[in-house]
Amino acid sequence: MNGFRQRMTRFMYGRYGNDQLSKMYLGLALVCLIVNLFTRLTVFYAAGLLLLIYSMYRSFSKDIAKMSSQNQKYLNWRYQTIAKYNNRKKHWAQRKEYRFYKCPGCKQKVRVPRGRGKIAITCPKCHVEFIKKS
């Protein structure tokens, strides 16, 4: 067993290995193959197989810079998506106590308390003043 581990370590030396994007591709491949079991559509089988092959290609690739930049783009996209979801969730939880307006100058979201009537709102970013009903 120890000899196999050493041979595998030597084989993977200089190769990229697994990262979050490869794991996401493996997960999608697994989902496609499971869906294929129930639907018997060859589209899911082909998609799962292609995703599996591409994930293995990424893992064994020696172009580390290219694979690393692809992974970084994926991580940035995932972070932005999660941040947008969390902001919408927070906005939804605060909808009864606050109203949200966009500044006409810079489009910054401004939160004001509900039930105050017409108020003058000053944008904290660009200091433009606008009047809205809270």
Helix-strand topology string: HHHHEEEE
Mean pLDDT: 93
Biggest β-sheet: strands ordered side by side in the sheet: 1-2
What share of the residues does DSSP label as strand, in percent? 5-15%
The oligomeric state is single chain
Count of DSSP strands: 4
Using the CA coordinates, give the radius of gyration: 25 Å
Helix content: 55-70%
Low-confidence sequence ranges: none
- Report how far apart the termini are: 70 Å
Main sheet specs: 2 strands, antiparallel
**Globular, elongated, flat, extended or rod-shaped: what is the shape?**
elongated
Q: How many individual helices? A: 4
Structural class: alpha+beta
Folded structure, characterized:
With 134 residues, this protein is an alpha+beta fold. The protein contains 4 helices and 4 strands. The chain has a two-stranded antiparallel ribbon with strand order 1-2. Strand 1 and strand 2 (109-113) form a beta hairpin. The longest helix has 30 residues, at 64-93. The mean pLDDT is 93.
List keywords for this structure.
two-stranded antiparallel ribbon; elongated; 4 helices; alpha+beta; 15% strand
How do you describe this structure in short?
This protein is an alpha+beta fold. The protein has helices spanning 2-12, 20-39, 42-60, 64-93, and strands spanning 98-102, 109-113, 118-122, 129-133.
